[in-house]
Amino acid sequence: MAPSRNAGPTDLILFKKWMATTQWILLQTQRFPQNFRHTLSQRLDSLALAILEDLTTAA
User: Fold this and answer.
1) Which residues, in sequence order, are CB contacts of 29 under 8 Å at separation 6+?
2) What is the pTM of this model?
3) Chain centroid to CA 48: how far?
4) Which end of the chain, N or C, is surrounded by fewer C-beta atoms within 10 Å?
5) From the CB of residue 51, how many other CB atoms can be counted at a distance below 10 Å?
6) Contact yes or no for 15/59 (Cβ under 8 A)
7) pLDDT tens digits, residue range 35-45?
C-alpha cells in the first residue's frame, strides 16, 4: 500500500475550480425554461455533482 501524504495547496486547485464551476452550473440550470428544467438541467446538475463527488473521493 502506498504511503499517504497530506494534501498540499496545489492539490486543492482542481477541487476549488470544479466547485466554482459546479456552483455556476447549478445557478444557470435554475434559469432554464420549465420544460427543460426536469430533464436537461437535472442531468447537468447530476453530472456536475458526480464529478465533484469523484474528486472528493480521489483526494
Assistant:
1) 37, 40, 41, 44, 45
2) 0.70
3) 4
4) N
5) 13
6) yes
7) 877 888 889 99
